[in-house]
Amino acid sequence: MTEKEQAGPKPVVKMIDLARLAGVSKSTVSRALADSPLIPKETRERIQALARDHNYRLNKKARNFRTKETLTIAVLIPDTQEKDWRLSDPFFLELLGSIADTLNDQNHELLLAKTSMRSEDWVVDHVQRGTCDGVILVGQGTQHAEINAMADGSTPFVVWGGLLPGQRYCTVGSDNRLGGEKATGHLIERGRCRIAFFGDRRLPEVELRYEGYVAAHKAAGLEVLPELEVTAPFSGSSAFDAIAAFLKSGVELDAIFACSDVIAMATVRALGEQGLSIPKDVAVVGYDDISLAAYYSPPLTTVRQDTRKGGEELVKRLLSLIQGGEATPLMLETDLIVRASTGGVSGS
């Protein structure tokens, strides 16, 4: 084995790193790598040598952005191994619509795919094959550690999801912990004290909502009861089956915090089949505020996630990374929308 092979691959750097090493601006580095005559020959050669030494490759991403040519952005849906999960999930479609509109406004194209995260390079491959110039991941699945590792590379990507400890990648999403606390606190204010939690805590966003659920109980001096926690997937049919089985067990409850509006709607159906009235017997709060929530029967009290703003900010941050810039995480405002499913006045 040669010394070069023993040393392993050189770390990949960004344009901002080359600028710092060369003691010049990013624009100077960009022009030098494009062999612009505006940059003195000696400076060009020095920067180009640094780029070779540090394994920097100038590709079409930044050039396209500057020249207003079309970029292709991939929106990838991590495979959570939930086989009945579909791309037709209403919350996802609303977020995707915002992403698509924002990209269209900027003359960029969208590539949509559901990807397996069992492959080591499950996102990087999309960029290296040239099928896209950057990636928006919708959800972290159960792969936070793998996404964190990917952040150490050069692939530009952003994630819709929760803000987690030790996170090194950029996320846009709601304050899930606060949302869970607001939803549960609202039910407690309505006099409910046996509040069930429906969701899959393996997913980071759901776990954060559960933390808010626990915090609201502690603030009110109420005990969190393990028998009131139900693992409910985001698929409506699977959620219904899990909830119906739980209700048939005869466990006493007077309220439910469902971690998505789809789960909340499955809950309403299951409660109805058990002859329980909403909200008289059981109050229900959902999460997301999808468009249908206001028109459901009864209209759902829910925590609003701003999909319009979310899509815009995901695109904004990804394009910044593609240019060689920075992108910081953003937590959107978290609002509780009170409707009839908890005894509020129906409204939008």
Query: Which residues sit in consecutive blocks of at least 5 with pLDDT less than 50?
Result: 1-10
The CATH topology of the largest domain comes to Rossmann fold
Distance between the termini: 68 Å
User: For the largest beta sheet, what order do the strands appear in spatially?
Assistant: 2-1-3-4-5-11
Largest beta sheet, briefly?
6 strands, parallel
Total individual domains: 3
CATH-level-2 architecture of the largest domain = 3-Layer(aba) Sandwich
Helix content: 40-55%
Element string (H = helix, E = strand): HHHHHEHEHEHEEHEHEHEHEEHEE
Structural class: alpha/beta
Structure notes:
This protein is elongated. It has 13 helices and 12 strands. The chain folds into 3 domains: 56 residues, Orthogonal Bundle (434 Repressor (Amino-terminal Domain)), CATH 1.10.260.40; 130 residues, Rossmann fold (3-Layer(aba) Sandwich); 137 residues, Rossmann fold, CATH 3.40.50.2300. The relative contact order is 0.12. The strands form 2 sheets. A 6-stranded parallel beta sheet has the order 2-1-3-4-5-11, covered by helices on one side. A 6-stranded mixed beta sheet has the order 7-6-8-9-10-12, sandwiched between helices. The protein is an alpha/beta fold and 348 residues long. The protein is 41% helix and 15% strand. β6, α10 and β7 form a beta-alpha-beta unit.
